């Protein structure tokens, strides 16, 4: 019985290792992409204060890391893997959940950038034009 427990655990060790390396690599890679691309959006939003754009971008990346690494740790625990097939299925499920969370958080960041940029653009729009003429309907008395 103890030998069977040892075999089941030995299948999970590589799963945990591959999962940890892959989750860190995906999160860091996506965070770098967000940092570079987000800098362009934030530079447009904070044209008059480039230091603020950089600070906001760094804070967003830190939040991205915290959310993703926290979630990756939460879903890391796995049930027993009795053979190599179940170990691969566990790994695929874990990576699938992680990729979905990365995608959701990524699109959340993109939406946040979009809202910030739109709000900044609305702030610099000229005021509405005052009507110059009053239209009178023909035949109305």
Description:
With 141 residues, this protein is mostly helical. The chain has one domain (2-123). 77% of the residues lie in helices and 0% in strands. It contains three helices and no strands. It has helices spanning 2-45, 50-74, 84-123. Helix 1 packs antiparallel against helix 2, helix 1 runs parallel beside helix 3 (84-123) and helix 2 (50-74) packs antiparallel against helix 3 (84-123). The longest helix has 44 residues, at 2-45. It starts with a helix and ends in an 18-residue tail after the last helix. The mean pLDDT is 82.
Structure characteristics:
mainly alpha, elongated, 3 helices, 141 residues
Instruction: Give the number of DSSP strands.
Output: 0
Low-pLDDT ranges:
none
Number of domains: 1
Largest sheet: none
Measured on Cα atoms, how large is the radius of gyration? Answer: 26 Å
What count of helical segments does DSSP give?
3
- Basic shape: elongated
Q: In which range does the helix fraction lie?
A: over 70%
Alpha-carbon distance between the two ends: 100 Å
Structural class: mainly alpha
Question: Would you summarize the structure shown here?
Answer:
The protein is mostly helical and 141 residues long. It is built from three helices and no strands.
Secondary-structure topology with pairs:
Layout: H1 2-45, H2 50-74, H3 84-123
């Amino acid at each position: 019985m103890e030998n069977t427990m040892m075999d089941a655990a030995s299948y999970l060790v590589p799963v945990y290792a591959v999962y940890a390396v892959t989750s860190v690599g995906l999160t860091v890679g996506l965070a770098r992409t967000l940092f570079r691309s987000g800098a362009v959006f934030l530079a447009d939003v904070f044209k008059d204060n480039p230091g603020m754009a950089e600070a906001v971008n760094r804070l967003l990346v830190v939040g991205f890391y915290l959310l993703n690494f926290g979630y990756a740790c939460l879903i890391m625990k796995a049930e027993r893997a009795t053979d190599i097939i179940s170990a691969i299925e566990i790994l695929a499920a874990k990576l699938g959940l992680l990729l979905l969370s990365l995608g959701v958080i990524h699109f959340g960041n993109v939406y946040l950038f979009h809202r910030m940029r739109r709000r900044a653009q609305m702030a610099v729009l000229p005021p509405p034009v005052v009507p110059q003429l009053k239209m009178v309907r023909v035949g109305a008395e």
